[in-house]
Amino acid sequence: HLIDDAFRDNEQAQKLFMAILRQPTGITHQLRRMNRYGVLAAYMPDFANIVGRMQYDLFHIYTVDEHTLFLIRNLRRFALKKHYNELPFCNDIFEVIPKPELLFLAGLLHDIAKGKGGDHSLLGEKIAYQFCTKHHLSQYDTRLVTGLVRNHLIMSMTAQRKDINDPDVIHEFAKKMGTEEFLNYLYLLTVADIRATNNSLWNSWKDSLLRTLYRETRRALRRGLQNPFDRTDEIQSHQNQAHNSLLKLGLDEKTIKRVWAETSADYFLRNSVEECIWHTLAIASCPDSNLPLVFLRPVSKRGGVEIFVYAKSSYDLFAVTTATLDQLGLDILDARIMTTSGGYVLNSFQVLEQNGEKIGDLVREHAISSKLRQRLLAPEDSSLIVTRRTDRQLKHFKTATQVIYHSSSQNGCTVLELISTNRPGMLSIIGQVFSQLNIQIKNAKIATIGERAEDIFYITDVHGKPLESPEQKETLKQTLIKLLDKTT
Question: Any idea of the CA torsion for 475, 478, 484, 487, to the nearest 10 degrees?
């Protein structure tokens, strides 16, 4: 009762609160004590709304106030040398941010509008503005904090749901960042937020995705927003680097041209130089009589284990591949699907074991590649039934399947967004539906967020054209909804 409006309006109290956030040590400890004894809720009435507030999903395992304080703890660890080995990239970025207290304040306020109805990011921005002005922050600092609260989900969603190999995607994201300084703050907030949400949510895959988005965005900002990267230049650069490296590795000009002859220009955009080299060497060493080619690369810069499949294109290839990987107990994190003009597929799947770890030994790698190749050789004999059971907890958090067509076609494809309950065999079911309806998958973006799967597919009709017919779109939509909701 001692913390009333008069106390909250007291300039000395406001200065003391901001001074706590500027301390070199003890910030997390003091905020936890203030929360335990009701001081935070009394001093910040909006914070009272999130104390003990449950979040009814599997994505968040803490109450909102506990999650917020875990986030602050994570941010503090970025500042401490004794935790450097955890996430050295974050520690290095933390070193260059000019005002860590603004980062801590944004972390404290990022979810403060949860439970108020509406978009908590936008509502939280208003609360953050009121708090910053009341505490006499400069206009610049206020803009920084409110911008972080408003955009605290954007980096994670961009990394997981958009093609961050596309220069246009990077340019649009860089425009939203505006400055490298804001990017630095947001990157640290994003990593700390994910790691404070769920113990199993952070893995090498998400780490790699976010670092890639950060580095490409920083590169775009340093080049200048008025001078964006040209797709053609990027493609040519990747080709030239890969070509020179392949020649040094002993591959001759004729072989390189043969392997690359039927690949689209986009192949060199969507794959790194290192991946282009690896794929080319694998394909060059494999005659058609030995197809399908299944290669594993346990050390991938994308954070997962890469499984590369080169084979003659078939409608059931995606369904058979995903069902087999699921049956083998692997979680598929990302799929890059490409079809050459000659009818071959170059499919890459990033996978991790169910526990989020990389594949541990050569015996396991061999078992995976052998089983997958065996299934692809005789797809008609392959069972597409996944025996892995749905987690008991997942059964209590059903998400009604949504199929959304995005109005703009990208790269000559129809963009289909699918939201549903994540469960074993889901991608195989989707693949079977596409196969039955003569739909071709050109690319896929797989994102699992707690119990929700939020996947994006770039698809075409049998002729390689975007889906134009409303009837065809509706049939595909209703078939997916019926089958996916039936299996939850």
Answer: -110
Strands (E) across 60-151 are located at none
CB burial class (10 A; 0-12, 13-18, 19+) of residue 372? Answer: buried
Q: How many residues does the chain have?
A: 488
Residue 162's identity, in one-letter code, is: K
Question: Which residues does residue 339 pair with via DSSP β-bridges, in sequence order?
Answer: 345
**Structural element, H or E, at residue 126:** helix 120-134
Q: Quick one: tokens of 168?
A: 């246009």
Q: Which residues contact residue 353 at a Cβ distance below 8 angstroms, ignoring those fewer than 6 apart?
A: 329, 330, 331, 359, 360
| Residue spans of alpha helices (H) in 249-302 | 253-260, 267-270, 273-284
pLDDT band at 488 (very low <50, low <70, confident <90, very high): low
Q: Distance between CA atoms of 357 and 330, rounded to whole angstroms?
A: 10
Work out the burial of residue 24: count CB atoms within 10 Å of its CB; fewer than 13 is exposed, 13-18 middle, 19 or more buried: exposed
Who contacts 199 (Cβ-Cβ below 8 Å, separation ≥6)?
Answer: 61
What pTM was estimated for this model as a whole? Answer: 0.88
The pair of structure tokens assigned to 343 is: 């009818």
User: Per the structure block, which two tokens stand in for 446?
Assistant: 């797989």
- What contacts 350, CB < 8 A, 6 or more positions away? 205, 300, 302, 303, 304, 305, 306, 307, 332, 333, 334, 335
Per-residue pLDDT tens digits for 315-364: 889 989 998 998 899 988 888 888 888 889 999 998 988 888 888 788 99
Rounded-to-integer distance, Cα 68 and Cα 110, Å: 8
CA distance 337 to 441: 7
Q: Of 331, 339, 278, 286, which Cα lies nearest the Cα of 305?
A: 331
